[in-house]
Design goal:
- By secondary structure, this protein is an alpha/beta fold.
- It has one domain: Rossmann fold, CATH 3.40.50.720.
- Helix content is about 35%, strand content about 15%.
- A hairpin with a 4-residue loop joins strand 7 and strand 8.
- The longest helix has 20 residues.
- The protein is globular.
């Protein structure tokens, strides 16, 4: 892909990196990344991916902006309260970089729409905030053969890992199934440090960019755990589990299913 003079100037700090160059920037411009969730994790990830010149960004989110979101969801402003999150986030992406094509899916990801949405993308970022949604993203990426970055945050701790279906351990290799209802508090119940979302979301964006560029070592077969109070990172190594119900030798999960009915699901066509 040939770059225009304006693109060469815009992406000059990428292009002067020997590992990236004009060819790598062309890869980014040709890439397609899907973000499931345009909230705390999705906000920093999508802003950095838009700035980096990822050619197509898909945004899946069925919620509207709430005042309580603004403590951490930096893609949205006070004026956006009440708007669809995908519309608010898409507006910010376009303002940062008109090179980026944004596709909006103002609905929750579900078993009956996930594979159709995922099929057009090269890499998926899981920015959801419930166990049911995270297991659905993991399962859908497995069946679609799409690499993805998982992340989760609560109180002062975050975790993230990257999965390449068919090559690495998966989310269910570590977490076999969702915990019982109410066993783990949500962010609305236990709270979350706002900047924690920015740290983990930025790591997810870095993983997406590295995957597209074919650079470095991805967070595969290891869970990166960040403690904001101690300011420490820990790597927890793991490998593909032969008994995994999803990617194991004799999987029990052979079709995509919803772990729990999504709340307030809305079905609409994606907007260009």
């Amino acid at each position: 892909m040939s770059l225009t003079e304006q693109q060469i100037e815009r992406y000059s700090r990428h292009i002067i990196l020997p590992e990236v160059g004009g060819r790598g920037q062309g890869k980014l411009l040709a890439s397609r990344v899907l973000l499931v969730g345009a909230g705390g994790l999705g906000s920093p990830a999508l802003l950095y991916l838009a700035a980096a010149g990822v050619g197509t960004i898909g945004l899946v989110d069925g919620d509207v902006v709430d005042l309580t979101n603004l403590q951490r969801q930096i893609a949205h402003t006070t004026a956006d309260v009440g708007r669809d999150k995908v519309e608010s986030a898409a507006e910010k992406c376009r303002a940062i970089n008109p090179d980026v094509k944004v596709r909006m899916y103002p609905e929750h990801l579900r078993a009956d729409n996930a594979l159709d949405i995922l099929k057009d993308y090269d890499f998926v970022l899981d920015g959801t905030d419930s166990f049911a949604a995270k297991f659905l993203v993991a399962d859908a990426c497995h069946f679609a053969g799409k690499p993805y970055s998982h992340a989760g945050i609560l109180r002062f701790e975050g975790q993230t890992m990257t999965v390449i279906p068919g090559q690495t351990g998966c989310y269910r290799c570590l977490f076999r199934e969702p915990p019982p209802p109410n066993a783990v508090p949500s962010c609305s119940q236990a709270g979350v440090l706002g900047v924690l979302a920015g740290i983990m979301g930025a790591i997810q964006a870095a993983e997406a960019a590295k995957y597209v560029l074919g650079l470095g070592e991805l967070l595969t077969n290891r869970l990166l755990v960040f403690d904001a109070l101690k300011m420490t990172f820990r790597n927890i190594g793991f490998s593909r589990n032969p008994a995994c119900p999803l990617c194991g030798n004799s999987p029990s999960i052979v079709t995509l299913r919803d772990e729990a009915p999504p709340a307030c699901a809305r079905t609409r066509e994606p907007k260009p």
